[in-house]
Amino acid sequence: MKHKVTTTVNGRKHEHEVEPRLLLVHYLRDEPGLTGTHIGCDTSQCGACTIHVDGKAVKSCTMFAVQADGKSLTTIEGMAKDGELHPIQQAFWDEHGLQCGYCTPGFIMAAAYLLGQNPNPTEDEIRKGLEGNLCRCTGYVNIVKAVQTAAKTMSTSPARKATVAAGGN
Amino acid sequence: MAVSQLVGAKIHRREDPRLITGHGHYIDDFTRQGAAHAAFVRSPFAHARIKSIDVTDASKAPGVAGVYTARDFKGQLAGTHPAAPAFVADKKYIPERFPIAEKEACYQGEIVAAVLAETKGQAADAANLIQVVYEELPAVMDLEKAMASGSPKVHEGAADNISWDMTYTGPDVSEAAFKEADVVVEERILQNRLAPVPMEPRGVLAEFETYDKKLTIWMSSQNPHFIRLFVSGAMGLKESQVRVISPDVGGGFGSKISPYPEDYLVPALSRLAERPVKWIETRTESIQNATHGRGQFYDVEVAAKKDGTLLGMRMTQFLDVGAYVGTFSAFQACACLMAGGAYKWKGISARTIGILTNRVPTDPYRGAGRPEATHLVERMVDLVARELKIDPVEIRKKNFIQPQEFPYTQNFGLVVDSGEYARALDVALKLAGYDDLRKRQADLRKQGRYLGIGLSTWIELCGFGPSAATAPATGGIALVESAQVRVTPTGSVIVYTGTHSHGQGHETTFPQIVADQLGVPYESVELRHGDTAEGTAFGYGTYGSRSLAVGGVAISKAVGKVIDKGKKLAAHMLEAAEEDVVYEHGAFHVKGSPDKSKAFGEVAFASYGMNLPEGMEQGLEAVAYFDPPNLVWPFGTHIAVVEVDAETGSAKLEKYIAVDDCGNIINPMIVDGQIHGGIVQGVAQALYEEVVYDDETGQLKTGTLLDYMLPSANEIPPLSLDHTITPSPTNDLGVKGIGEAGTIAASAAVINAVCDALSPLGIKHVDMPASPDRLWKMMKEARQ
User: Fold this and answer.
1) A65-95 pLDDT, tens per residue?
2) Window A:32-71, CB contacts with B under 8 Å
3) CB of A20 within 8 A of CB of A1?
4) Residue ranges of the domains in chain A?
5) How far is A112 from chain B (nearest CA, A)?
6) Domain B31-137+199-251+256-289 adopts which CATH fold?
């Protein structure tokens, strides 16, 4: 039996008939075809599938698509606007916060939520705040640096700060 | 090379805009119209006879397009899993391996059946309906027991469980050194089995075009050309009928080098079902089936004089091969050849034994053999220092190969190209504040706290692999590298490399080299890789820190050929003699007459026209292969500072200093990134990670990331990096490799720090991972 699910993804409304067992991450990848959200572990350890659900960072493998009915979702594809990178994306680029790039969308989404909650985190708060995401390439050094750089940029750009606090939409 | 602006500069990566916006193209992002999804049924037992397989229910399940067992693939696939000579050319026993088990499953996870269905979910559901009757057999798990003559066998009917037993240098080689010894130190050193865990699991999408007889495979691979070679051979196709595309790859770390059963089965399923077939590995499938690394132990003895002079070593490597011999499993035996480290020895006796067990096969994992060698020699040197009450810094400096001794022929006949080991050590000691650390350690000890400082003065060999240097060990296989440089009529430069980038940033660094050498805008140079339909006839892939030192140099050679042809054409255009034409800053000009000049773009355009020198063909492109005269030998010093909690046994990495020397640096940002990631994988081996199987049943106990502990940002302290630069004389760029250095160095630094921390308790050696439970037990025992 399929269920109707209505979502708003990156500001666009979608309606799909889905199986009740369909995970939100598979829904995003298979229905709207947003493949920037990655699957890395199946047990909610790695955080590669992190998105925002109504402004909160959620590992999208921990939710069924039917649970997202009526909700507003932001994925990595919704972070850059009009060809301009989000300050966190820019900071990951500037600080070499990625190598293979597979975990990166999840880290960017987790960092966006973290900075929305705590715009000026200490290094320790960044490390604790990102412990739900795993990276195998960077040793986290430049990821932490990227979040610090993004925090600085965003503190001098109030418009962007407001955007992130609202979950990127 | 010309004076450069790009080489050595921090250039932002070209790969990143697509990757940070969610527009990368990883294997699971690809699909083909009409593709069926594959799911595999895998043996739940480490060792079992397959009595029967009933596919009746599965065949009738919703959406199922086909159910297949070993018999169905018999006409599709031929041959056995390839096992390269690597560093053990002469193996005693290589069990036959078909990609799907028929009568006997030899590790938990081995494929016994396959299902095709319209959706992933339907394929997984149907796989659960296949009824396999197994008869469980004894699992061979312990290396020492596996070597005993009465042991059960990993494969029924085999004579024994020994795949190889090779003595590189016999006991006689170190006999004199041991006779001279004032002290002999012995230890057994374990290397925990590790899962490489690239964040992107593997995956294969294959489309066999029934009427064209052409096969295209999209997959997550470190070396697509090797896959084309092996898969075409197994499927009875010509290499020309097969195209392998390895797009953005989410990390490899060695686990995406060798061909896997699914790499054969998915294309074969596409040919059988006459439709595209896609399979994406789950994380549990990955930890269960992707090749593991390490999984060894070493028995080592070191002879030394009272003053700390190292004399001789006797070592035996006991290597857990797993149930089948991995394609490059025997590469890990290079640990024997590297056991001497950065030091001078009178004699080293080395033997490697490859032992089969009912576990998933081992194969190279980041560093492969060199982390084991570093760990072994750095531990042993510390043990000797402790026995003789000499500072770990002093014993190292006393025994280093000295700068004036390079090129240095080490105990196994390998020639170390260049080095300045004491300089890197001094820079690291200063950066760490070594003397202050020792004072702090003494203060904390008075308070009953256990702070330790560990050194790792590592060296490695990489840039695999020159035919001349590796011939004795490989049976003459040349892991050279290829490049093609094509210049379009408007002067754009397209560079094809046989290496593959899966995080290393080749799309950025290789154009840096080319743009500098040609003196053309960086933006006009584009790198292509990862598609066997483009570029040279054969590429050798990325592993063993070889991409720059072999592949980068091949590119530079191809650029040189383009310039040579350009000179001939420019001389014709300028009505000058070829020998009078020089190429500088992107233009060909006549020596002494800078105004008589043709820009690179003009010459490129002219090369496609009709006014060419007699006998010259149109176009401006070149292919080059580079077979280096030697391997390259990076080195450095890492220092770890660890505090072990006196109550809980938890080891906390407080500070980490790394001074590395990889010769000339193309992009310092990328080099540091490689070192960061490498270090953390080494730290993870030392403190956190271990693949655990049940000793009796062979059941995998660490099959998810819940049980297999990858460190998060919260476990890792900031890392302090610095460099020394000792150019390699082996290649024109003066470069060495850096991809594996961090991992090669780190486990020894961390464990030396843990052992140093616990030395007041009389603890001399700690095995990995130095987890809280292991340390707590050791501390409790030591206090009794």
Assistant:
1) 999 999 999 999 999 999 999 999 999 999 9
2) 34-43, 45-46, 48
3) yes
4) 3-77, 87-165
5) 13
6) Aldehyde Oxidoreductase; domain 3 (3.90.1170)
